[in-house]
Design a protein that fits this description.
Length: 234
């Protein structure tokens, strides 16, 4: 399941607005709520809309980016876009995810979006975590944890089997396991991580998952898996 990141682009230079808007449209996960130079329209949107990320210039005639961040930084995340490097230190006093110095290339813009996604995911408490961001084919997918059935290791890649899809990701099993809440997912083989609530039948060392696929419990993992079954039945 993919969900868009609602974003705003605010800059007083029409060329910068067009460039960043073009970059955002090429970045699959961004949903552009507003792109322009109207500070008061952005203030209205920040007060009424669910905005995840704001690309904001520093030097603007009516209200500076610093002043805007002072007003809204408690509940919003910013990526600064400016030609003035000297503002970097002051900008990072707020919820600044990245500082993009003009002229901004698409690669640098894309890196900023990646940083936001990683930063956002890192601050979700495990008890509240309900999704996972993964990168596949230069796109980020937001996958609901409830939809993951199991994860399959394939050399340098993993394949995430969900209720409706299979997503190939350049990731290793160790790193993906560290991102998952341990009370909901378990590694049962060097090539398999399962969602424990998606188990249908356990027969010896074979597990049939809810999607009817079979996975095998590896020898190294048999003891902890048996202990988990025992503790779950109490």
């Amino acid at each position: 399941m993919r969900q868009k990141i609602n974003c705003i682009i605010l800059d007083d230079e029409p060329f910068a607005v067009r460039l960043l808007n073009d970059y955002a449209q090429k970045t699959d996960l961004l949903n552009i709520i507003y792109a322009g130079s109207d500070v008061y329209e952005v203030m209205r949107l920040l007060g009424s809309e669910n905005i995840d990320l704001i690309f904001i210039d520093i030097q603007m005639p009516e209200l500076t980016g610093i002043e805007m961040m002072k007003m809204f930084n408690k509940n919003h995340n910013f990526i600064v876009t400016t030609a003035y490097a000297e503002y970097a230190l002051e900008a990072f006093d707020f919820h600044v995810v990245d500082f993009l110095l003009k002229p901004i290339t698409f690669n640098r813009f894309y890196q900023g979006v990646q940083k936001f996604i990683q930063w956002q995911q890192a601050f979700i408490p495990e008890s509240q975590m309900d999704h996972l961001f993964v990168r596949s084919d230069r796109k980020y997918y937001k996958i609901a944890l409830d939809e993951i059935i199991y994860i399959e290791g394939l050399k340098d890649y993993i394949r995430i089997h969900t209720i409706n899809d299979k997503i190939m990701v350049l990731e290793n099993m160790k790193d993906i396991l560290e991102k998952l809440p341990e009370n909901r997912f378990m590694r049962i083989h060097r090539s398999y991580i399962i969602a424990t609530d998606k188990i249908k039948v356990i027969e010896g060392n074979r597990i049939q998952m809810r999607n009817m696929d079979f996975v095998t419990v590896g020898e190294t993992y048999r003891k902890p898996f048996s202990e988990w079954i025992e503790s779950s039945g109490r």
